[in-house]
Amino acid sequence: MSGHSKWHSIKHKKAKEDAKRGNIFGKLSKSILVAVREGGGSDPRDNIALANAIAKAKEYNMPQSNIERAIKRGSGEADGASYESIIYEGYGPGGVAIIVEALTENRNRTASDIRNIFNKLNGSLGESGSVNWQFERKGIIIINRKDVKDEEEFMLDIIDAGAEDINEDGEEFEVKVDPSDFIKVRDYIKDKDMEIISSEIDLVAKSTIGLSPEESRKVLKLIDALDSHDDVQNVYSNLEITDELLRENIE
Question: What domains sit in the chain, N to C, each tagged with a CATH number?
Answer without folding.
Answer: 3-75 (1.10.10.200)
